[in-house]
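Usage

Read records sequentially. Each one opens with the input sequence:
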Amino acid sequence: MHTMSFTDLNMPPELVAALARQQITEPTPIQSAALPVLAEGKDAYLHAETGTGKTLAYLLPLFCRADVGLAATQIVIVAPTHELAIQIHRQSCDLAQNAGMALRSVLLIGGTATDRQIEKLKKKPHLVVGSPGRIGELITRGKLKTRDVRSVVIDEADLLLNEEHLQAVLAIIRAAPPGRQLVFASATRERQSTAEISTLAPDLIMLKAGAAPVSENIEHLYLECEERDKPELLRKILRCLEPERALVFVHRNDVADKVAARLAHHHIPAADLHAANDKLLRKQAMDGLRSGQIRVLIASDVAARGLDIKGVALVVNLDVPTMSKAYLHRTGRTGRAGTKGLAVSLVTESELRVIRRYQRELGIAMQCVRMREGRLVPVGDVESS
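and closes with the structure output:
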């Protein structure tokens, strides 16, 4: 059976070579679906799970459509968090460099000097990526020129089209010329954002693709315990498994702070990454995890949205999500690119019903374990009901 290649999708040889340098040789399902549609300049919604290559699914065709000979901003990408914007910017720069393309990208986010960003805009980058607030501010001030914009990408569209960001995003879209291409990307779809999108892009093409709903490379475990014992159990699990990188999910910011402090006290290098935290500290946390100085990142669902962290061997749910989709989202950050991953959930007796729900709705087996002599020992499965 012939496997689809990037050449089959009419990607230019220099971009195919650039991907090969990053060990990317076959398109993912969402990339196969998106590349031909977006290359024609059509409006589209890319709906696929986290980790399925959505960023490249829109970057590749937009790179093909960009005119590097025209010194003007042609692509605007809006992201809900600074970390995601930085990630997209990094991917754009890597792609351009590896392809030998003179396509310039500029990052526009808050928390950094506006004057420096304005200086960079004077060099007329082909692509800008950033947060809605900073992009909107620079358009309003006349520093970011939008008359040659061909494509506007709204990444994590369900988050950006909620009440908090909607007006800023609409202003950015309106600033672009009428014939511009609109691209939306998200792992989930909310009813409110769907309504907004149908107004903005009536001829929108829905592109839905995903990897297998649950990766077979992930082992799912859970431990039953008292709520007060969860932080201490987390410490023991991290000591027992010694993962190179681990993600710990909590619901509340104050819990993240306390858990990070407790782990630090026991000489386990950890950092908390949540929306209330200082931008510089968040960047330091991400850099520390990538370099290996930090082994454990504690985050809420919102703080971790869209982050692609390589080499996460373990995901721990200190607070379990009530929705199966959120569990899928969290645990999908391990076991990527063919590697083995482990997901461990700490649950109270009353939370066992959530484990049953995951098993029923996701079709996964979850092994009950307990801590014994510094090891995780199987107890027996919770019966599905």
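Summary fields computed downstream for this record:
- Residues 381-385 have pLDDT under 50 and may be disordered.
- The two ends are 40 Å apart (CA to CA).
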